[in-house]
Amino acid sequence: MDVLRQSYQYGTSLLASSSRSAPLKAYLFGGDISRSLSPLLHGILFQSVGASWECHLSQTTDKSVFLDTITAAETIGSSITMPNKITFGPLLDDLTDEARAIGATNTTFVRLDSTGKRRYIGTNTDCIGVREAILQQDPSAAHFTKGKPAMVVGGGGAARSAIYATWKWFSPSEIYITNRLKSEVDDIVDHFTTAIPHIKLRYIPDIAMANSLPSPSMIIGTIPDYPPSQPGELLSWKICETFLTKAKRGLLVDMCYMPAPETRLVKAAKSAGWQIILGTEVLARVCVAQQILWLESESNEEGVKQAVAAISPGTKSNL
């Protein structure tokens, strides 16, 4: 996917030859983001291409704060995280096909209309982060997942991105979904059966069904790393354990990376012999896609390596 080329469908470039030396800013909007790694990652990536830009946190769910901030002259774009991914998208001038199909927006960028007026566009780079994290580690992944079931754990905006990425680029026979609340899964199924009519989704309601189904070739976790306590959380965890301990092993991607990349789900999968991709790797690839849209240029691979290394497990200052 050429995200940069496609972005010009929504307008022309905002940047001038001097823009990289200007004091421009990007923001992350979310409800609990004080320990986010995004500013660190974006700082490394900006520096790697000679941009003096900064990434700041805006811990808010207030729509007016979001709009006031992204429309400021010095704002080049933004990242959106929980619980704003579904609610902030409709505030923008337009949404990309990915954001519409997923029903969640995690990135905004700016383009100019024919009169030179700024247009604020929403897209979804979480799906690209999932795809790139997998293919960077195993370029053959799309081959071994094709025609086999996959599974997504969760029912929020990240789960929607994972479902979209899995169906679009890894060609599973169907996607199992386990989540603490069936109502959230119902909303997801209703959305995707309209957005992608041929998609095949299956809610897993109990352990008996999990035992009766073939193993997924890939599992993507999208939920916060809190010990399960409520009945729905405990059941969903047991369903995960059931699939992880089946005879056939596969690939486990956990998009969660807080409070540490070695989540409960990652540890369980690793103990069961699954191949692992950490949430920090997904996050790094999400940030790279965002930077391509903001800087309007391809990423610096050395900068990408530095960014991934900076947030790898064991880098205590980042967590």
UniProtKB/TrEMBL annotation:
- Coiled coil where? none
Q: Which InterPro entries does the UniProt record give? A: Aminoacid_DH-like_N_sf (IPR046346), NAD(P)-bd_dom_sf (IPR036291), Shikimate_DH-bd_N (IPR013708), Shikimate_DH_fam (IPR022893)
- Residue stretches making up the Shikimate dehydrogenase substrate binding N-terminal domain: 28-107
Q: What Gene3D superfamilies would the database entry show?
A: Leucine Dehydrogenase, chain A, domain 1 (3.40.50.10860), NAD(P)-binding Rossmann-like Domain (3.40.50.720)
GO molecular function ontology, one term from the record:
shikimate 3-dehydrogenase (NADP+) activity
One Pfam match, by short name? Shikimate_dh_N
Check the record and name the SUPFAM superfamilies matching this protein.
Aminoacid dehydrogenase-like, N-terminal domain (SSF53223), NAD(P)-binding Rossmann-fold domains (SSF51735)
Q: Which GO terms describe its biological process?
A: chorismate biosynthetic process; shikimate metabolic process
Domain of life according to the entry: Eukaryota
Q: What is this protein called?
A: Shikimate dehydrogenase substrate binding N-terminal domain-containing protein
Name its species.
Penicillium salamii
Q: What is the lineage of its organism?
A: Eukaryota, Fungi, Dikarya, Ascomycota, Pezizomycotina
